[in-house]
């Protein structure tokens, strides 16, 4: 039979073991924890020149990639021409409108950079109280210029 002190020691030992497992002090067997990506990297210190150069270069490459995705002036003019060519009558005052069918046709002809703007979600976002289910060409074009 164990003494009272031995029982208390055993109890504290078990408590500590289970508490550490529960708190995460001991590595878990759950493999999903190893798949969580790291989302924070500290900024390199002044004396870490190589890491600073790597950070600058990766930022430059990122910005170049993003700028290639932007529409240039010629592509914007082409998009406006296509939207104007496929407008759906009747006009509302001076406002040219386009229905979803023609919107998709323009999306096919506009080119790969514009493809991201020709979705049902964007059409629905710009759809207001038009009785014919159309959106304003000018509103859509302004949306592309702001987002692109």
UniProtKB/TrEMBL annotation:
<keyword id="KW-0963">Cytoplasm</keyword>
<dbReference type="GO" id="GO:0001782">
    <property type="term" value="P:B cell homeostasis"/>
</dbReference>
<dbReference type="GO" id="GO:0005813">
    <property type="term" value="C:centrosome"/>
</dbReference>
<protein>
    <submittedName>
        <fullName>P2R3C phosphatase</fullName>
    </submittedName>
</protein>
<dbReference type="GO" id="GO:0043029">
    <property type="term" value="P:T cell homeostasis"/>
</dbReference>
<dbReference type="GO" id="GO:0005737">
    <property type="term" value="C:cytoplasm"/>
</dbReference>
<dbReference type="GO" id="GO:0005819">
    <property type="term" value="C:spindle"/>
</dbReference>
<dbReference type="GO" id="GO:0000226">
    <property type="term" value="P:microtubule cytoskeleton organization"/>
</dbReference>
<dbReference type="GO" id="GO:0045579">
    <property type="term" value="P:positive regulation of B cell differentiation"/>
</dbReference>
<dbReference type="GO" id="GO:0030865">
    <property type="term" value="P:cortical cytoskeleton organization"/>
</dbReference>
<dbReference type="InterPro" id="IPR039865">
    <property type="entry name" value="PPP2R3C"/>
</dbReference>
<dbReference type="GO" id="GO:0035303">
    <property type="term" value="P:regulation of dephosphorylation"/>
</dbReference>
């Amino acid at each position: 039979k164990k003494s009272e002190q031995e029982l208390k020691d055993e109890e504290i030992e078990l408590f500590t073991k289970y508490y550490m497992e529960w708190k995460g002090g001991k590595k878990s067997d759950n493999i999903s924890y190893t798949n969580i990506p790291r989302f924070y990297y500290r900024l390199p210190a002044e004396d870490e020149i190589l890491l600073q150069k790597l950070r600058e270069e990766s930022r430059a490459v990122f910005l170049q990639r993003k700028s290639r995705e932007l529409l240039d002036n010629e592509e914007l003019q082409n998009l406006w021409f296509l939207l104007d060519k496929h407008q759906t009558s009747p006009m509302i005052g001076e406002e040219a409108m386009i229905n979803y069918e023609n919107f998709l046709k323009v999306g096919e002809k506009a080119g790969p950079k514009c493809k991201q703007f020709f979705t049902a979600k964007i059409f629905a976002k710009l759809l207001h109280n038009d009785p014919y289910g159309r959106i304003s060409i000018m509103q859509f074009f302004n949306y592309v210029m702001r987002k692109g």
